[in-house]
Amino acid sequence: MTNPILITTTETIPGKHYEVLGEVFGLTTQSKNVFKNIGASLKNVVGGEIKAYTEMMTESRDVAIDRLRQNALAMGADAVVMMRFDSGAIGTDMQSVAAYGTAVKYYD
After folding, report:
1. Which of 13, 64, 92, 101 lies at a CB distance of 3.0 to 4.6 Å from 26, suitable for a disulfide?
2. Predicted structure pTM score
């Protein structure tokens, strides 16, 4: 998706002046299918990275950022500053990811 909205973890954007529009966020909750959960359980016995869950978290992060971007666009924002992530487990096989930040509009 080509998008003109800058998303940054910094508090300011060098060289830009802007007004704050408000908070924006993007949320997703995902889980893997039962076969990948079984594979993850077996991997848990021997240790090491559980790639299916790493992939799920990467996908969750990307979905959350895209939803944050859509929320900012709907507000008429040019950028999002102070973007952060939060995540948590729901039960034993679901993961929730939130991307949040402050939508801003350039004025010069």
Report:
1. 64
2. 0.80
- In terms of Cβ atoms closer than 10 Å to its own Cβ (0-12, 13-18, 19+), residue 26 is buried
- Kindly tell me the sign of the dihedral angle through the C-alpha atoms of 6, 10, 14, 18: positive
Q: With contact defined as beta carbons under 8 Å apart, do 82 and 20 qualify?
A: no
Tens of pLDDT, residues 39-77: 555 555 556 777 778 888 889 999 999 999 999 999 999
Secondary structure of residue 41 in the 3-state scheme: helix
Q: At what angle do helices 34-46 and 51-74 cross, to 10 degrees?
A: 130
Average pLDDT, the chain: 85
What is the spatial distance between Cα 32 and Cα 38, in angstroms, rounded to a whole number? 10
